[in-house]
Design brief:
This protein is of the alpha+beta class. It has a single domain, classed as 2-Layer Sandwich (Alpha-Beta Plaits), CATH 3.30.70.141. Strands 2-3-1-4 form a four-stranded antiparallel β-sheet. It is globular and about 50 Å long. The termini are far apart. The relative contact order is 0.23.
Length: about 150
């Protein structure tokens, strides 16, 4: 099983879309193995976006991700990285097709709702940045266990 870091960014929470976005991942069959609500420090945001430090948008992206609360998640499933990135659609919500998260909810490039790891190597680095190993849970999803019997 593959894991990916997913961040529901400040605009997702400010617009009240966290539940809708999260439900799409669960409905697709991805499993939540870690989740936190937090506000990123500038130091942590700079580490996360370190590969973009020399780019002109670095200050904007760090300012944006630290501007409000975020939900950090680790999602797991077969080909999770590819599946999640396809579900998100292109970064610019104006160009993202309908049916994708950004296509259905996004209208800008900067405010693009969700971050997701773009490779297995990035996922390992990003997950370790935000989660300790003991914060990730291993469990089976067996819905039959949870059906009430009369």
């Amino acid at each position: 099983m593959e894991q990916s870091l997913v961040i529901l960014k400040p605009d997702t929470l400010q617009r009240g879309l966290a539940g809708q976005v999260l439900s799409r991942f669960e409905n697709k069959g991805l499993k939540i193995v870690g989740m936190k609500l937090t506000r990123l420090t500038r130091e942590l945001a700079e580490k996360h976006y370190s590969e973009h430090r020399a780019k002109e948008f670095f200050e904007d992206v760090v300012g944006y991700i630290t501007s409000g609360p975020v939900i950090l998640m680790v999602l797991e499933g077969p080909s999770a990285i590819t599946v999640i990135r396809q579900m998100l659609g292109p970064t610019d919500g104006r160009k993202a097709p309908a049916g994708t998260i950004r296509g259905d909810f996004g209208i800008a490039t900067r405010y693009n709702l969700v971050h997701a790891s773009d490779s297995p190597e990035a996922a390992l680095r990003e997950i370790a940045l935000f989660f300790r190993a003991d914060e990730l849970l291993c469990y089976d999803r067996d819905v039959n266990k949870w059906i009430w019997q009369v």
